[in-house]
């Protein structure tokens, strides 16, 4: 039973992944990225989220591996703390309280126990790079207040700061300046581009900086797409730079590979460029990455790169420039024109995704399921280019059909409009284009709706347009003797006094169609397409229109632009009630009669839940968020909740999600977000976190063997133990047919006693034991992969000592007996 | 990552007849050879044996034509009155024909005089046929009787008097020598069995039966009469399978294609319809100049011969297959090169790397992929593309406009190249489906090349032509608007109930165009 808590508005999923550079773990198995107040740990191989590191109380702004312990991760946040995490177990180790709002975080191995953060000065738009001394202490929370200024007046973005050549200097860029601070000399040099300062439209201000890991070389990216490589910068006079130019737009990020032999750059072109040996002609490209590259990072092991994109995506790229994994969050790049929808099949949230795509986003797992390419044209990522926009979409017939509208308008008179109808194919488990209608209307399509009645035999679609018509499209049989096919054709065109059609809506049983023409609502019979009646309140254009459901199906609701909500009775054709409410979103619940309406007031948005039969709302929540709510949708729950309180009963069977103007997806919940977002936390094996490279396979194995051998020679007592499978007693037990075995109770005692260690025999058999073990071990290491074997051995370490003894007592007892019989008297004679 | 997406080529629905494999097949004939006969051609019959000559019955003569000859290679003219229904025997060596005077004559193909004459009918014999055993002839006559004749001793064997009106058509079973069907003007089709002396079953067609046909399997019977073609299932005791009403005048003749997959019917409405024998839908239709009386298809559908009421015989030969030009083939790697390593089983430590399949891109797409926009435009302005597939050219112009590089692609062209672009515009600007894209392109061209106008007489002439075209189009649109206004007036006077308002087509904003260049 759910306790009667108050219902709160919570942010649900879909947080940004591309806010800062992603960070690789030392073995390149995990990738860390900041995501709102959390740090998310993803596996690079499976793209799954492994851990969510929760603890910060505000936006996390920077993460970096602890340079002194590669199993730990630092993070800093706007809440003024630096936290140290054990990312393998997802445990918070320490919290350092700095006190200032931290904008970025840097650490390197040579600055012993101090780290660097960017903080804000009192003046707006001026930031400082300061070093923070982290005091050594065992307590969980430590105050770290020892700050010392390194660089002043810098850019807030961490892309504009880079530490070079093992922490000897730090480079920062801002506007037209490159500042380099040398730690040893404690001196700052400042460089400008000679031609830039005075020219009016010079577009070569700095955008990002990266330092060569081995040499004294700084790479800077510029707004005009040039990359400059600075050398000799320790001398104010003799510094030089060379220029690399491929990007035609701003360079968004730069990164050197681990060895420094190649430089990676990316920008709006969504092409990752690899410059080999810092030469203009040695370029490699990875094109069509989908969206603007925001950040580039390189794994410490050097085998992987990753790019963060503006469409909330991280692509893990192999060293040879092959994309190997895509971690995709909720795309928030474009403006949401289609609104929120629920795919009846997958129960996924559907909305605009990448340009020209529809994204299917699973709310439960906070993960994008897939992208459906609607426009199917090469996306040219260029500033100021008018793209084809996906403006409307609707699902029909239990998810069997999907209708989409795309448009492109360059000038007022040139409108390109295309409607596409997609059918769900069971074979491919995806949507397949069925019908393409060019210019379905002569002006913008304002609404699109399917007839979703249970018993409708023929799928029907209605489009309303600003050209004053609404069109009814039906599915017709297009098959002939050669092939079976179905296609959509226009069945009826309706209009009302040349008014613009603004909304359309089918009643629940599909018998009536309501189309609003500016101020007037018209009701049409869906059998004969006859105009039945009209409603007009003269209260402004109709913005939303919906029929009541279930017991309230005789009501029609309309919300106007002048802030009036009207409810008409369809039986008496009269106004039932009206209310003054400036409604932005009106959504009917598919599982009940309830209708949710979000209105905009001067301070924020208010939610009203009501039944069309009663003007008195069931539930009111004022001020659900400060921004304007753009879209909302009811999502049916998988398992119905049972709120007993009357006020919350509307949340029993569906959940209400809404999207604000700044595109944050919010919902109502009684649970805390931590409970809601229980990650599929898999228990990670505490394996060696060093990468297994081919070299490691060749050399590491040998070394391991050598190590073991040396270990053995050193301490003879250390008993190396075989696997349980290799104990003859057990294997015999397992391989003997059951019908010839004695009763289990008999065997049990034997088996247990076989695991016991018999002390008196041990000292006597040291030498044969040793020989035997060596053989045993060698057969192992050749047969199996090293680390696995080792691990199992470690685990079995505790109880296997006895087995050997058991084995020996069996195989060599006779020999021992012989030994006993031998006369040792000659020893005494010596 | 996702690969390059080729430019979307706008497709336009092809109006009129759909192109199907049937229309392709049945249109693949040469223009018909017309042969003038002496009277209405009442029957055409192909010899079942090579060289597939055909006998044409017209007036009192029977002509035998060779496959490609326009002159008859043989003529039987020993008829006192009109001859009917000259039919070849299965071996192609004998020919039987009825005549107006009630006689049935049997000819040897090589001879001239009749071999046998079967006398017994009192009125015109309109249908004769050989039975499957080759030694009997079936004839039906206007005296309502159907007779079976023995060829060796030219005797009448049986007479069936079950029809109550003229017997005008008949057909012997190809499988069973004892069975044949006849159709009569008493609206019935009857099947007779020579072993029982009476009809085995009878079906009611509903109209005077003009033609009957048995399927080669013997299971289905087709009858034509009135405007109907009806198919009967004989194995179910004469159940009506389907009734086809696709002609609007009497159907006079029936014929099966050589594969048995298609049924053809000719009618007085001057059309031949082709039906599929699985769905009984019309898949194709031929038009002729006059009412059709007879129809025959040669072996392998090589020739369609149609006889008409005005005595014209129309012969269509199938176009010979274009010979595959045997270019000297490039030497390819040996077969074993391709199968090398195919049978290799993946071992435990092997990593399988598949070669990515290469997607074929059109040449213009390859240019677009590499942002060579002028080159891409050049490609689609080749005469081969602009003439055959102007929609590709228009789609590429549209794509360039979408990418915002149309002006770049159009700029910097010399006289020859710009006149090529202008030629294309002049030819296609007035087409409504291309207009919106091309007007935009024309505007850009005018903007770009306005400063250099007057330097080349060729280009200037093209610009003037374009201007004339635009002016003409404006006038045309004006006229259309006027007409529309008049029609509105007419509709308004007709004050019908205004439940559904009249759909108005505002004419294309085709021409808010053009600062005139000069």
UniProtKB/TrEMBL annotation, chain A:
One of its GO terms (molecular function) is RNA binding. The gene is WDR75. This is WD repeat-containing protein 75. Ribosome biogenesis factor. Part of the small subunit (SSU) processome, first precursor of the small eukaryotic ribosomal subunit. During the assembly of the SSU processome in the nucleolus, many ribosome biogenesis factors, an RNA chaperone and ribosomal proteins associate with the nascent pre-rRNA and work in concert to generate RNA folding, modifications, rearrangements and cleavage as well as targeted degradation of pre-ribosomal RNA by the RNA exosome. Involved in nucleolar processing of pre-18S ribosomal RNA. Required for optimal pre-ribosomal RNA transcription by RNA polymerase I. WD repeats lie at residues 53-95. It comes from the Eukaryota. Residues 763-795 are annotated as: Disordered. One of its GO terms (biological process) is rRNA processing.
From TrEMBL, chain B:
One of its GO terms (biological process) is rRNA processing. One of its GO terms (cellular component) is nucleolus. InterPro entries: U3_snoRNA-assocProt_15_C, WD40/YVTN_repeat-like_dom_sf, WD40_repeat_CS, WD40_repeat_dom_sf, WD40_rpt. Keywords: Nucleus, Repeat, rRNA processing, WD repeat. It is found in: Nucleus, Nucleolus. It holds the Pfam family UTP15_C. Residues 344-490 form the U3 small nucleolar RNA-associated protein 15 C-terminal domain. PROSITE patterns: WD_REPEATS_1, WD_REPEATS_2, WD_REPEATS_REGION. SMART domains: WD40 (SM00320). WD repeats lie at residues 118-159, 244-285. Transmembrane segments: none annotated. Ribosome biogenesis factor. Involved in nucleolar processing of pre-18S ribosomal RNA. Required for optimal pre-ribosomal RNA transcription by RNA polymerase I. Part of the small subunit (SSU) processome, first precursor of the small eukaryotic ribosomal subunit. During the assembly of the SSU processome in the nucleolus, many ribosome biogenesis factors, an RNA chaperone and ribosomal proteins associate with the nascent pre-rRNA and work in concert to generate RNA folding, modifications, rearrangements and cleavage as well as targeted degradation of pre-ribosomal RNA by the RNA exosome. Part of the small subunit (SSU) processome, composed of more than 70 proteins and the RNA chaperone small nucleolar RNA (snoRNA) U3. May be a component of the proposed t-UTP subcomplex of the ribosomal small subunit (SSU) processome containing at least UTP4, WDR43, HEATR1, UTP15, WDR75. Interacts directly with UTP4 and WDR43. This is U3 small nucleolar RNA-associated protein 15 homolog. It comes from Phyllostomus discolor. The lineage of its organism: Eukaryota, Metazoa, Chordata, Craniata, Vertebrata. The gene is UTP15.
């Amino acid at each position: 039973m759910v306790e009667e808590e108050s219902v709160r508005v919570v942010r649900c999923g879909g947080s940004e992944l591309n806010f800062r550079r992603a960070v690789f773990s030392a073995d390149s198995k995990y990738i860390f990225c900041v995501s709102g107040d959390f740090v998310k740990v993803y596996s690079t191989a499976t793209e799954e989220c492994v851990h969510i590191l929760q603890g910060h109380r505000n936006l996390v702004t920077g993460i970096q591996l602890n340079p002194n312990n590669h199993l730990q991760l630092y993070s800093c946040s706007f809440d003024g703390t630096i936290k140290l995490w054990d990312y393998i177990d997802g445990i918070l180790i320490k919290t350092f309280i700095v006190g200032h709002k931290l904008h970025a975080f840097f650490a390197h191995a040579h600055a012993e126990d101090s780290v660097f953060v960017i903080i804000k000065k009192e003046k707006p738009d001026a930031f400082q790079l300061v070093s923070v001394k982290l005091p050594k202490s065992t307590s969980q929370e430590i105050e770290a207040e020892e700050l010392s200024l390194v660089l002043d007046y810098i850019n807030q973005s961490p892309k504009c700061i880079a530490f070079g050549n093992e922490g000897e200097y730090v480079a920062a860029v801002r506007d037209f300046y490159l500042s380099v601070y040398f730690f040893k000399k404690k001196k700052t040099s400042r460089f400008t581009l000679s031609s830039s300062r005075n020219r009016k439209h010079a577009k070569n201000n700095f955008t990002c900086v990266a330092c060569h890991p081995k040499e004294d070389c700084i790479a800077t990216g510029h707004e005009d797409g040039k990359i400059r490589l600075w050398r000799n910068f320790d001398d104010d006079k003799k510094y030089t730079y060379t220029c690399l130019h491929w990007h035609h737009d701003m360079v968004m990020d730069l990164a050197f590979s681990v060895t420094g032999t190649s430089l990676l750059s990316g920008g709006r072109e969504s092409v990752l460029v690899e410059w080999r040996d810092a030469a203009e002609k040695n370029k490699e490209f990875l094109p069509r990455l989908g969206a603007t590259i925001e950040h580039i990072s390189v794994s410490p092991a050097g085998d992987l790169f990753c790019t963060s994109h503006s469409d909330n995506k991280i692509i893990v790229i192999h060293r040879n420039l092959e994309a190997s994994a895509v971690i995709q969050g909720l795309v928030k790049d474009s403006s949401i024109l289609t609104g929120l929808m629920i795919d009846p099949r997958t129960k996924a949230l559907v909305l605009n995704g990448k340009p020209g795509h529809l994204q299917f986003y699973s709310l439960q797992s906070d993960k994008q399921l897939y992208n459906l390419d609607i426009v199917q044209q090469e996306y040219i990522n260029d500033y100021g280019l008018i793209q084809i926009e996906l403006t409307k979409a609707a699902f029909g017939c239990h998810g069997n059909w999907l209708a989409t509208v795309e448009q492109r308008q360059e000038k007022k008179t040139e409108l390109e409009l295309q409607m596409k109808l997609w059918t769900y194919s069971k074979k491919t488990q995806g949507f397949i284009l069925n019908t393409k209608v060019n210019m379905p209307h002569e002006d913008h399509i304002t609404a699109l709706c399917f007839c979703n009645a249970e018993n409708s035999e023929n799928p029907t679609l209605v489009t309303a347009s600003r050209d004053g018509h609404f069109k009814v499209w039906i599915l017709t049989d297009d098959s002939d003797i050669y092939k079976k096919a179905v296609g959509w054709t226009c069945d009826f065109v309706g209009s009302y006094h040349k008014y613009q059609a603004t909304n359309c809506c089918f009643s629940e049983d599909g018998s009536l169609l309501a189309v609003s023409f500016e101020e007037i609502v018209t009701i049409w019979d869906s059998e004969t397409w006859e105009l039945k009646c009209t409603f007009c309140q003269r209260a402004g254009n109709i913005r939303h229109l919906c029929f009541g459901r279930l017991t309230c199906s005789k009501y029609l609701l309309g919300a106007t632009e002048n802030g009036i909500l009207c409810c008409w009775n369809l039986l008496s054709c009269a106004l039932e009630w009206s209310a003054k409410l400036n409604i932005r979103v009106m959504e009917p619940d598919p599982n009940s009669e309830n209708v949710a309406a979000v209105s905009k007031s001067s301070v924020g948005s208010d939610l009203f839940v009501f039944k069309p039969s009663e003007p008195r709302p069931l539930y009111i929540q004022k001020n659900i968020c400060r921004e304007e709510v753009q879209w909302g949708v009811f999502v049916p729950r998988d398992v119905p909740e049972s709120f007993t309180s009357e006020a919350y009963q509307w949340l029993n069977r569906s959940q209400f999600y809404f999207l604000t103007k700044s595109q944050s997806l919010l919902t109502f919940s009684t649970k805390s977000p931590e409970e809601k977002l229980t990650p599929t936390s898999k228990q990670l094996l505490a394996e060696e976190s060093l990468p297994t490279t081919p070299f490691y396979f060749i050399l590491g194995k040998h070394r391991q063997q050598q190590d073991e051998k040396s270990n053995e020679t050193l301490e003879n007592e250390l008993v190396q133990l075989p696997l349980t499978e290799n104990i003859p007693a057990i294997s015999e037990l397992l391989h003997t047919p059951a019908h010839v075995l004695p009763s289990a109770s008999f065997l049990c005692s034997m088996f247990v006693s076989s695991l016991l260690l018999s002390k008196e025999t041990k000292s006597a058999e040291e030498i044969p034991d040793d020989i035997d073990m060596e053989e045993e071990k060698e057969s192992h290491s050749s047969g199996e992969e090293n680390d696995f074997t080792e691990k199992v051995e470690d685990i079995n370490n505790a109880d296997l000592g006895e087995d050997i003894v058991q084995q020996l007592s069996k195989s060599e007892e006779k020999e021992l007996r012989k030994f006993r019989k031998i006369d040792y008297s000659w020893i005494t004679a010596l | 990552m996702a690969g390059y997406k080729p430019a979307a080529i706008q497709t336009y629905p092809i109006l009129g007849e759909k192109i199907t494999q049937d229309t392709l097949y049945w249109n693949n004939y040469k223009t018909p050879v017309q042969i003038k006969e002496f009277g209405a051609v009442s029957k055409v019959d192909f010899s079942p044996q090579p060289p597939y000559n055909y006998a044409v019955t017209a007036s009192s003569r029977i002509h035998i034509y060779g496959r490609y000859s326009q002159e008859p290679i043989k003529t039987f003219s020993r008829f006192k009155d009109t001859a009917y229904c000259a039919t070849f025997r299965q071996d192609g060596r004998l020919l039987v024909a009825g005549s107006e005077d009630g006689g049935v004559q049997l000819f040897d193909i090589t001879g001239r005089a009749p071999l046998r004459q079967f006398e017994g009918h009192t009125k015109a014999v309109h249908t004769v046929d050989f039975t499957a055993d080759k030694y009997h002839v079936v004839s039906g006559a206007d005296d309502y009787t159907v007779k079976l004749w023995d060829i060796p001793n030219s005797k009448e064997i049986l007479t069936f008097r079950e029809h109550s009106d003229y017997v005008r058509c008949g057909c012997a079973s190809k499988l069973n020598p004892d069975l044949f069907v006849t159709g009569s003007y008493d609206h019935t089709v009857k099947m007779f069995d020579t072993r029982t002396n009476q009809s085995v079953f009878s079906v009611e067609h509903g109209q005077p039966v003009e033609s009957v046909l048995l399927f080669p399997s013997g299971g289905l019977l087709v009858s034509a009469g009135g405007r109907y073609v009806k198919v009967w299932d004989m194995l179910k005791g004469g159940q009506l399978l389907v009734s086809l009403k696709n002609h609007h005048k009497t159907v006079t003749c029936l014929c099966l294609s050589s594969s048995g997959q298609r049924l053809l019917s000719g009618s007085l409405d001057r059309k031949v319809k082709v039906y599929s024998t699985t769905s009984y839908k019309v898949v194709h239709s031929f038009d002729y100049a006059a009412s059709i009386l007879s129809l025959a298809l040669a072996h392998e559908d090589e020739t369609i011969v149609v006889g008409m009421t005005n005595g014209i015989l129309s012969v269509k030969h199938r176009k010979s297959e274009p010979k595959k030009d045997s270019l000297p083939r490039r030497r390819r790697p040996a077969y074993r090169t391709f199968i090398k390593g195919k049978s290799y089983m993946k071992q435990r430590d092997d990593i399988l790397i598949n070669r990515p399949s290469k997607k074929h891109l059109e040449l213009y797409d390859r240019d677009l992929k590499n942002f060579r926009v002028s080159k891409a435009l050049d490609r689609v302005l080749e005469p081969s593309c602009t003439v055959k597939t102007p929609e590709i050219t228009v789609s590429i112009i549209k794509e360039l406009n979408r990418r915002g590089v149309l002006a770049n692609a159009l700029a910097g062209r010399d006289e020859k190249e710009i006149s090529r672009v202008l030629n294309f515009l002049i030819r296609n600007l007035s087409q409504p489906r291309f207009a919106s894209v091309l007007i935009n392109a024309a505007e850009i061209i005018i903007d770009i090349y306005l400063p250099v106008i007057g330097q080349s007489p060729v280009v200037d002439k093209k610009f003037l032509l374009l201007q004339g075209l635009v002016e003409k189009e404006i006038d045309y649109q004006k006229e259309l608007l006027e007409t529309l206004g008049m029609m509105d007036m007419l509709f308004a006077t007709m004050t019908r109930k205004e439940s559904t308002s009249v759909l108005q087509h505002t004419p294309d904003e085709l021409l808010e165009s053009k600062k005139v260049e000069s």
